[in-house]
Design brief:
Rossmann fold; 7-stranded parallel sheet; 36% helix; elongated
Amino acid sequence: MRILLLDKNHPLITEQLLAKNFNLEEDFTSSYDEVCDKIEHYDGVIIRSRIPLDQNFLRKAKNLKFIARVGAGMENIDIPVAEEVGIQLINSPEGNRDSVAEHVVGMLLILMNRLFIASNEVKNGIWLREENRGDELLGKTVGLIGYGNMGKATAKRLSGFGCKVIFYDILPNLSDEFATQVSLDELKDHAEVISLHVPLTDSTNYLVNAEFISEMKNDFYFVNTARGKNVETKSLVEALKSGKVKGACLDVLEYEKASFENLETENEDLKFLLNSEKAIVTPHIAGWTHQSKEKLAQIIVDKIVTSFC
């Protein structure tokens, strides 16, 4: 089986697949058009996010049996077309769920306890105590939207902080020892913290917008480690200014390029987030630990070997 690797990943992918007698070819530089011109010669492709696998690409991939994405999200793949032409889709959300969950908790603790602010003040000779009183996670009702791998891992950790964790998901009967499933309306009525854990689809694009925010009963903290375009940034900024959103922890931004490697635009809303004490912004690294890099790769290898050996 001939497999094309389009992005750099953990070397264990190459080492273990070669040991299983797969024929591997690496191409980390060719353009979308150049890859399209040769994709018909491959049985499998392993990607992250460098190029889109759209309808044009997939219809040219006449011999492709699988696409393996080292990561969770699959929005850079035209899934309906892939399913139509019989291409198996493989991803590895199990590999970075722990990293994402820890990032969520870490950002909340930093934001709610003003740790960055207080530390920077002390480093600059400013010693303020009353002004830096924190807000405890203990006793807070946390509402998760999406209860797959990331949501469940996050609930497990937050429950250990004494939070009441509730969640909304489109699938039924997912309640467990760490969180209780509720309707979206119930979640809006009770949550004091909102954390997103959903893929980017037509139904989740701008899921959090002005209407969503206005329907929240409580002022709330907001966390997004899912996809930037799940949130209408302009509405989030207005809510931060008004105080409806007490603070925002953002690992993803609406303005990221599809490759997630950098930002594609700058505007006043982004400038506000980057300069506000009420926002923490990280560069799409919630699932980006040394451990997750290895786990993501191992899970991809295991799934390929199970299906094609």
